[in-house]
Design a protein that fits this description.
The complex is a heterodimer. By secondary structure, chain A is mainly beta. The N and C termini of chain A lie far apart (about 30 Å). Chain A is built from no helices and 11 strands. In chain A, strands 2, 4, 5, 9, 10 and 11 form a 6-stranded mixed sheet that branches. By secondary structure, chain B is mainly beta. In chain B, the strands form 2 sheets. In chain B, strands 2, 4, 5, 6, 9, 10 and 11 form a 7-stranded mixed sheet that branches. In chain B, strands 1-3-8-7 form a 4-stranded antiparallel sheet, with no helix packed on it. The termini of chain B are far apart. Chain B has strands spanning about 5, 10-15, 20-25, 30-40, 40-50, 55, 65-70, 75-80, 90-95, 105, 110-115. In chain B, about 0% of the residues lie in helices and about 55% in strands. Chain B contains no helices and 11 strands. Classes of the chains: A mainly beta, B mainly beta. At the A-B interface, strand 4 and strand 5 of A face strand 5, strand 9 and strand 10 of B.
Chain lengths: ~110, ~120
């Protein structure tokens, strides 16, 4: 996962917006994913975006992509205590077939 | 859709023993992946299969590790002999067309292995 970088920790108050950042390396034909991992569970797919898109919105989740800087962010609106988890950014290129590159994960802690 | 099913959820064993982890992928998915997760190294891809054939096992740490996929609905990851440094959470994941592009990985809940 060293090719995909994320900050390790984020603390946010309930009701505020969370923004989790990620930088990736391959600018060509890339899909970028966000996964959520709750304690004792596997990784759950949240959303994904193709590199020819700038933004994708899905209910409380907004993904923003800055291709120039190879920067991806996940914004969670109205953060709830149930959003406390580890969030992983992952990159895969269309010619890497199965080689998901995961970041180290960002631990998000939501406080009341 | 039952999701990816892994067993056992927890395994505690003594050093030197053989350990077998099991995985049932989502029906209809033709690619299967084994990952290992530790605090120190994060998520590591060990091996993946497409249509039951191993495609890339370069992530398998050493010869003590082996994986098989005898059919489309079952895979095993075996460690023999096990060592304390093998302690980790092992995840199985499956996807429909090899995990490329918009075919995301679907993960099981993992097997937490502790080798004493």
């Amino acid at each position: 996962g060293e090719d995909v970088e994320q900050s390790l920790f984020l603390s946010v108050r309930e009701g505020d917006s969370s923004v989790i950042n990620c930088t990736y390396t391959d600018s060509s034909s890339t899909y970028l994913y966000w996964y959520k991992q709750e304690p004792g569970a596997g990784l759950q797919l949240l959303t994904y975006i193709f590199s020819n898109m700038d933004m994708k919105q899905d209910q409380r989740l907004t993904v923003l992509l800055n291709k120039k800087d190879k920067h991806l962010s996940l914004r969670i609106a109205d953060t709830q205590t149930g959003d406390s988890a580890i969030y992983f950014c992952a990159e895969v290129t269309t010619d890497s077939w199965g080689k998901f590159q995961f970041g180290a994960g960002t631990q998000v802690v939501v406080t009341p | 859709d039952a999701g990816v099913i892994q067993s056992p959820r927890h395994e505690v064993t003594e050093m030197g023993q053989e350990v077998t982890l099991r995985c049932k992928p989502i029906s209809g998915h033709n690619s299967l992946f084994w990952y290992r997760q530790t605090m120190m190294r994060g998520l590591e891809l060990l091996i993946y299969f497409n249509n039951n054939v191993p495609i890339d096992d370069s992530g398998m740490p050493e010869d003590r590790f082996s994986a098989k996929m005898p059919n489309a609905s079952f895979s095993t990851l075996k460690i023999q002999p096990s060592e304390p440094r093998d302690s980790a959470v092992y995840f199985c994941a499956s996807s429909q067309t090899g995990g490329a592009g918009n075919s995301p990985l679907h993960f099981g809940n993992g097997t937490r292995l502790t080798v004493t």
